[in-house]
Design a protein that fits this description.
The protein is mainly beta. The radius of gyration is 13 Å and the shape is globular. The strands form three sheets. A four-stranded antiparallel β-sheet has the order 2-3-4-8, with no helix packed on it. The chain has one domain: Rieske [2Fe-2S] iron-sulphur domain (Rieske Iron-sulfur Protein), CATH 2.102.10.
C-alpha cells in the first residue's frame, strides 16, 4: 500500500472562520471542499450527492455547520457529510484535514 498523499489547500491564514476553499486532489481526481467552522476544519467531497454539482458554489451557513447546493437546495452537514434535507438523501464523503507547517492539507482517503 502506498503512503497517503496529502493535497495542499492553502496557508492557515488564508482560510478564516466562516470561509470555504475548493481544492482538487490530483492523485484521485476528486474535488474537495475545505471549510473553517469557527476554527475547526472539515473537508467533504465538493459534489452534491443529489446532482453532480459543486457544493463550493453554494451557500455556507457557519452557525448550522452546513452548505447548501445552489442547484436544488440540498443541504449537507460539513462535520460528517450527512444530507440534511431533500432532495439529497445520501451523504457526501468526508475527508481528513490536517494543519502542518502553517498550511492546511487534505486527502481523499477512500480505497
Amino acid at each position: 500500500m502506498n503512503a497517503p498523499t496529502w493535497t495542499f489547500v492553502c496557508t492557515s491564514a488564508e482560510l478564516l472562520p466562516g470561509e470555504m476553499r475548493p481544492v482538487f486532489d490530483e492523485v484521485t481526481g476528486t474535488a474537495i471542499l475545505v471549510v473553517n467552522l469557527d476554527g475547526d476544519l472539515y473537508a467533504v467531497e465538493d459534489r452534491c450527492s443529489h446532482e453532480d454539482f459543486e457544493l463550493s458554489a453554494g451557500v455556507l451557513d457557519p452557525a448550522e455547520g452546513s452548505v447548501e447546493c445552489v442547484l436544488h437546495g440540498a443541504r449537507f452537514d460539513l462535520r460528517d457529510g450527512r444530507a440534511l434535507c431533500a432532495p439529497a438523501y445520501s451523504p457526501v464523503p468526508k475527508f481528513p484535514v490536517k494543519v502542518e507547517h502553517g498550511g492546511i492539507w487534505t486527502r481523499d482517503d477512500r480505497d
